[in-house]
């Protein structure tokens, strides 16, 4: 993406300078995607250096490809079908060890939401107040059995 934008910028600068309306309308919208692509490249390299398990890196690659599927088709020769097959294979490799990957993150030290594990969730649900009553819904079209089952 960066090399593609360098070529486009060179053409636009030669044509009307870097302060032209055409430059602004064509190049400026590319800035965010270009910076994001650089960030993805840095994240990928950091993940490899940190010895993140390859199946997780493959899932990340597929997620990034999905962000700009057309570019990977045009520039990388990776058809949309091939992208989906690659994504399916990556997820299939990662799923069997997903619980192991999640456990290794040690998120319990950082997350306080009760949904973090089954026991905390169940404790939270059990602590919720429950309300009972003998009211009947105002909707007369509901059968009595349904109305009473809603309580």
Task: Count up the helices.
Answer: 9
The helix content, as a percent range, equals 55-70%
Q: What structural class do you assign from the helix and strand content?
A: mainly alpha
Strand content: under 5%
What average pLDDT do the residues reach? 88
Query: What's the alpha carbon Rg, rounded to whole Å?
Result: 26 Å
Oligomeric state of the chains in view: single chain
Order of H and E elements: HHHHHHHHH
Q: Report the sheet with the most strands, covering strand number, pairing sense and barrel closure.
A: none
> Which regions contain 5 or more consecutive residues with pLDDT less than 50?
none
Rough shape? Answer: extended
Number of E strands: 0
* Cα distance spanning the termini: 58 Å
Annotate the secondary structure layout:
Layout (H helix, E strand, L loop, with lengths): L1 H15 L4 H7 L2 H20 L4 H14 L1 H6 L5 H15 L3 H7 L13 H10 L16 H6 L2
Helix pairs in contact: 3-4, 4-6
Overall description:
By secondary structure, the chain is mostly helical. It has a domain at 52-123. The protein contains nine helices and no strands. It has helices at 2-16, 21-27, 30-49, 54-67, 69-74, 80-94, 98-104, 118-127, 144-149. The longest helix has 20 residues, at 30-49. The chain starts with a helix and ends with a helix.
